[in-house]
Amino acid sequence: MTTEDAKKLLERFQAETQLIQSIRSAIADSAAMTLPDGRYITGKEALEAELVSQLDLLIKDEARIIAAIMQMPDIHFRTILLDHYINGKGWEQIAAQFEVARQTVCRKWLEPALEEFSQNYEKDGEPKC
Q1: pLDDT tens for each residue of 24-74
Q2: Is beta strand 40-41 parallel, antiparallel or unpaired with respect to 33-34?
Q3: By CB atoms within 10 Å of each CB, which of 38, 43, 115, 124 scores lowest?
């Protein structure tokens, strides 16, 4: 897995998380919604079934991703990947947390963090993206 593949994997995870939030909102509002794959879902029961399906996928992905991140010895790398891709924090917030410039996080730490993540993710025998 390349660092670009690792970044895409983590971004896909973020998108799945956002989709789940959208489905939850649609259920709460008793609204219909169009999914990224083009399906149009109406009705609370159909939305709830889709939510359960998406949550199942997300939980499996999250467990593999977090396990790979937690194997990383560098706290900066672990923190930026967890905070940005899992917890949804922005780069500015993460930089402020470490009291460094945003450029330090994005230019100095992100690429090596993605590289190490991609190596850990593959070590676990997970499929390459």
Answers
A1: 888 888 778 888 888 888 888 888 888 888 888 888 888 889 999 999 999
A2: antiparallel
A3: 38
Task: Express each pLDDT in 69-115 by its tens digit.
Answer: 999 999 999 999 999 998 889 999 999 999 999 999 999 999 999 99
Per-residue b or e along 10-19, where b marks 16 or more CB atoms closer than 10 Å to that residue's CB: beebeebbeb
Q: Could you identify the residue written with the tokens 């992100």? A: 110
pLDDT band at 125 (very low <50, low <70, confident <90, very high): very low
* Phi, psi (rounded to 5 degrees) for 72: -75, 125
CA 10 to each of CA 15, 34, 85, 113: distance values in angstroms, whole numbers, following the listed order:
9, 23, 6, 12
The CA radius of gyration of the chain, in Å to the nearest whole number, is: 17
Cβ contact 51:24 at 8 Å:
yes
